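User: Before I run my own analysis I want an independent prediction to cross-check against. Here's the chain; please return only the structure tokens and, at the end, one sentence I can use as a sanity check.
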Amino acid sequence: MKDLRQKLEPIWRAATRLTPSEGGRCVMFMSACEGEGTSSVAASFALIAAGKARKSAWLIDLAFRRNE
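Assistant: Structure tokens:
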């Protein structure tokens, strides 16, 4: 996994501007093709979210068919 936290700071700021009606936020990362780094982006974003919010962040991989 590549650490992409520095590059994802603007996305974190944009996500925190969205005000949920209740509960937390859900952010989905998708790619057009396999191997584009979606897992690295999602993991780095989850680390940012957990650190900034000072709470736990859940990272759920939804690749059901081909998930080692």
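Sanity check: The longest helix spans residues 38-53.
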